[in-house]
Amino acid sequence: MREIQYKPSDDFKCLQLPWNPYEWQFGIRGARGTEFEGGIYHGRLLFPEEYPWKAPSFMFLTENGRFKTQTKIRLNWQSSWRVRDALLALVDEMDTYPDGELGSIKYSKGKRRALAMKSREAAPKYGTSERQKLIDEIHQNLLREAPVPVPQLQQTRNTSLARRCQVSNPPVDYFNFSFVLSCCNYLRLFLFICPPSLTFL
Description:
UBC core domain-containing protein, Ubiquitin Conjugating Enzyme, UBQ-conjugating_enzyme/RWD, alpha+beta, UBC, Ub_conjugating_enzyme
């Protein structure tokens, strides 16, 4: 369990509960290039006494659109895995649409993206004040290392610009001057070739 402290990662942060060596608080970053990018997802990591021969369980505290909150999740564990491997596998597992998997939910990509942006606003409230301090610390660390995705910002700017253009430039009905000018030229040519006979009374 100590390897996650000695080998830190930019993709997740973990802190052990001082009063319980078998439980850790974790936070993971949404995978780049997915609808979870930029999101910060908190959860609990519960180790059995038989670890690593028996799989730990995960429980999300942040609404994410992929896993139910406060519901135990178990990955296809391998005894050779360490916590780092499990957390990285959890990050990869989020960008899937399983059918009937225990503890899973299926939200649209748009909803998941909205939840990712919302997850940055504040850490979830859970448990005692001592536990909350750990959650808040993890959130602040990941927030500094997980800037808002550039595509998301660009999309927001483009949408705002389009809306401003719609307001400042209302539709205008244009008169087709080119068509009228062409008709006049044809008429002049016709009159030049076939001048009309004038009869004066």
